[in-house]
Amino acid sequence: MNEQETVLLDSFCGDLGLEIVFAGKGRVTLTTYSVSRPGLQLAGFFKYFDSTRILVLGNTEYEFLRSLPVEVRQAQSVNGPLAVLNDYYDVYVTQPDDAKWRLDNMHEVYLDDMHSKYVYPNVFMSIDDTNRVSQLDTDIKKYAEQKKADWILNGGIEEDWDSYLQKMEDYGLSEYLAIKQKYFDKYQESLSEVETTEAADTATEN
């Protein structure tokens, strides 16, 4: 399916006899035939996840989610809350010593600076930009993880830094950041518009 061959979600579901539980604001347009069964994603593994595909949750995925306690079940949702109660340790989840150390270290070192304003928001990109970001993301993250592991084991980050940045540029880092920045700016603009509208509504009510 190309960009001209689109199908509206309500038509798609109507033809298949499916019920639309939530479609957001307005009608959603599907632009791909590709589907994916998100079993691994429900278990929390998102590496190589293709967000452009249609996700199909069947009986297997449904029963898997039902088998989880509500707090753990919510944690498997994309951007869902994460709450693991102390009573769950050694019952539904484990907490090895190294995991406890990382959790304690996160609270001591990072927690004070962890704010939503530093998190890239959910944005909707064009098909072309989505595909391009996915292409660039593969090489950029692979190289970053490779160098991180190398520096942890062997050191040398100061000596390698300039060549590392150049290699990232060769992989298209500037283009990648430009695309992400474009949609982040649009997101910020939409927030400002919402805040302006809400302020105007409040003033009118008063």
How are the SSEs ordered, and which strands pair?
Blueprint: E1 7-8, H1 9-16, E2 29-30, E3 35-36, H2 39-42, E4 54-55, H3 59-66, H4 70-75, H5 97-110, H6 127-154, H7 157-170, H8 173-205
Parallel strand pairs: 3-4
Antiparallel strand pairs: 1-2
Helix pairs in contact: 6-8
Describe this structure in words.
This protein has 206 residues and is mainly α. It has 2 domains: 7-115, 3-Layer(aba) Sandwich (Udp-n-acetylmuramoylalanyl-d-glutamate--2,6- Diaminopimelate Ligase, Chain: A, domain 1); 127-205, no CATH class. Helices cover 56% and strands 4% of the residues. The protein is built from 8 helices and 4 strands; from the N terminus they run βαββαβαααααα. The chain has a two-stranded antiparallel ribbon. It has a two-stranded parallel ribbon with strand order 3-4. The chain is extended and about 60 Å long. The model has no long low-confidence stretch (mean pLDDT 77).
Roughly what fraction of the amino acids lie in strands? under 5%
Order of helices and strands: EHEEHEHHHHHH
Number of strands: 4
**Content-based structural category:** mainly alpha
Give the assembly state of these chains.
single chain
Q: What's the CATH C level of the largest domain? A: Alpha Beta
| Annotation field: number of helices | 8
Give the strand order of the largest sheet, numbering strands 1, 2, ... along the chain: 1-2
Termini distance? 51 Å
User: Largest sheet at a glance?
Assistant: 2 strands, antiparallel
Q: Give the helix level as a range of percent.
A: 55-70%
Q: Into how many domains do the coordinates divide?
A: 2
Which value, in Å, is the CA radius of gyration? 22 Å
Low-confidence stretches: none
In round numbers, the mean pLDDT is 77
CATH fold name of the largest domain: Udp-n-acetylmuramoylalanyl-d-glutamate--2,6- Diaminopimelate Ligase, Chain: A, domain 1
Under the CATH scheme, the architecture of the largest domain is 3-Layer(aba) Sandwich
Overall spatial form? extended
